[in-house]
Automatic annotation (TrEMBL):
The keyword 4Fe-4S does not apply. Its main location: membrane. It holds the Pfam family SdiA-regulated. It is found in: Cell membrane. Belongs to the YjiK family. This is SdiA-regulated family protein. GO terms for cellular component: plasma membrane. The chain crosses the membrane at residues 6-26. Keywords: Cell membrane, Membrane, Transmembrane, Transmembrane helix. It comes from Nonlabens agnitus. The lineage of its organism: Bacteria, Pseudomonadati, Bacteroidota, Flavobacteriia, Flavobacteriales.
Length: 285
């Protein structure tokens, strides 16, 4: 019996040592140095109710629609006034992660792949909310949603799953038929020349998109990551144009991205033990 107890104790000690070693290895990894081809031109500190901001999209007249990952509310944020000017209730509490607006309707992605449609969400009468389940599951941890370049389809990319060992994919969702494309319409090629060996590994094992947007002037895809703050910019064919590493001081946890019709880029950052913000940035590709 003593030998059994001793063996068990040694096994437990070994497991603890392995865990400690793994933690030390990860915690001592140097973060990627911030890129130099972006500039913050303006910052909006957000109210406490948006501390958990998880997604944004451009509306009009210097207003942005925001959601946060706890309450079923759409917040209308006025950039000129620097505050929330309207709150729209569309559902109960839940892990809501991304928002897009098509014509008069708002679409909100929940992390488990359920997509909510809030019809005529800016009108004064009572809002009508419907929903349907996309092809994604809680294992995919969905955090992104955007309109395509023509504005008639929704786009998303899973945060936690890869299509293959060598690619991650952007999928199309038809809001009319409620169908999700079975294959990705765009693939991020990990063997693209802009990825060095270390970054190939990072994108394959750590690239976890927290939101996306399509540039209205160029059609480029802007993929945001919050865990390891960066933007991956793809052209219309899915080829990588640039990987922009963001500084962790100003972008502790970027969770949302929106681009205005004139090309102004906004990045929303969760509070993460600080004040949540929206930064307007200029990016030089």
């Amino acid at each position: 019996m003593k030998n059994v107890k001793l063996t068990f104790a040694l096994v437990v000690i070994g497991m603890v040592l392995v865990a400690v070693f793994a933690y030390l290895m990860v915690s001592h990894q140097k973060p990627m140095a911030a890129s130099t081809n972006y500039e913050i031109v303006k910052t909006w500190p957000l109210q406490r109710e948006l501390e958990e901001i998880s997604g944004i999209t451009w509306l009009t007249d210097n207003t942005i629609a925001c959601i946060q990952d706890e309450n079923g509310l759409i917040y209308i944020y006025d950039l000129e006034q620097g505050k929330v000017v309207e709150r729209i209730n569309f559902a109960g509490d839940g892990d809501y992660e991304a928002i897009a607006v098509m014509d008069d309707d708002a679409f909100v992605m929940r992390s488990d792949g359920r997509l909510f449609k809030v019809a005529r969400f800016r009108e004064s009468e009572q809002k009508t909310t419907t929903y349907f389940q996309t092809n994604f599951t809680p294992n995919d941890d969905m955090e992104s949603l955007a309109l395509n370049a023509t504005g008639d389809m929704l786009l998303t990319i899973p945060k936690q799953t890869n299509n293959t060992e060598d690619a991650k994919g952007i999928y199309e969702i038809d809001p009319e038929t409620k169908q999700t494309s079975s294959d990705p319409i765009i693939e991020i090629k990990i063997n693209d020349s802009l990825f060095n060996k270390n970054e190939q590994r990072a994108v394959r094992t750590r690239f976890s998109p927290s939101d996306m947007a399509v540039h209205p002037q160029t059609g480029d895809f802007y993929l945001m990551e919050g865990v390891h703050p960066k933007l991956v910019v793809l052209d219309q064919k899915g080829l990588v144009k640039d990987i922009i590493f963001l500084d962790s001081k100003n972008f502790a946890q970027p969770e949302g991205i929106a681009i205005s019709p004139t090309g102004r880029i906004y990045i929303a950052n969760e509070g993460n033990a600080g004040i949540a913000t929206i930064h307007e940035v200029i990016i030089k590709l």
